[in-house]
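Appendix B. Worked example

We walk through a single record from start to finish. Start with the input: the chain for 2-dehydropantoate 2-reductase, Flavobacterium granuli, length 310.
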Amino acid sequence: MKTRIGILGLGGVGGYFGGLLAKAYAESDKIEIVFIARGETQKRIAESGLKIITDDSESIVFPSIVSDDPAVIGKLDYIICATKTYDIEESLLPLEKCVAKNTIFLPLYNGVDATERISALYPDNEVLQACVYIVSMIESPGVIKKIGSFEKLFFGSDLAPLSKLNALQTIFKNAAIESYFVDNIEDTVWEKFVFISALASATSYLDQNVGEILNSQSSRNVYVELLNEITMIAAVKGLKLPNDIIMQTILKLEKTPHNATSSMHRDVLAGHKFELASLTEFVVNEGLKYEIETPMYQKVLDKLAVISNS
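Next comes the structure step. The output line below is what the pipeline stores for this chain.
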């Protein structure tokens, strides 16, 4: 009996990792990869496959199925969720017929509240915690571009069966995905959230890419203020982040391609809906909850909320 894995959301993250899985298991009689897509993306992938472009290669992959019809998709053993955070409920509710009692969800979102939100929709299913580090984006429908060589996927759970977690890790390893099954996953997810929240907020607020922020002292100061505020909240919540988390996060930023920016900033520039609620407003609300002042996050929220509502 085949292990069936659905990839929901074929953007920079879902498209890239889903593409690696589809490529690795194209001829497999044990693992089947299903792309859950609609509209132009579905049409392009059905006709021409999913193209993945890296700094030194191009490849085209075809999943076993590409569809948004639950009757065509069928029951899934794992659902890897990689839509935008504002689409969590809207994208997952229509897949009710694809979810069996043993279906496991792997959320690859930018925020830290996805596991809780998915569990509210499917309370009887295991929902893992996870995060990824990667610079990748949609170049056009059905085409994913990855910049740089850095890519890591971390996942774990306090509740899911160890056999299922080990099986998923094996599936990733055999697809040449650099993945880590970790025990202290909530700390790991928050460590990533510190990085992505501050970066998304700073790039979108300043309208600058990574290199421009690093090369301007005033922009660096904004970024560091954001880091100070979010790490204070993490500490009050009792999360065990590294003592030098701020320095580590700045070093991560320095290793990020300097012409790159956050996905939220790209969405702001394109005039698209963007993840303000999960990446910026969430921190402000946590600050209010734990009585931690977040003046820089509040400045960012105030400015970007005007854009979001316009």
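Two observations about the output. The mean pLDDT is 96. The chain has two domains: 3-183, 187-309.
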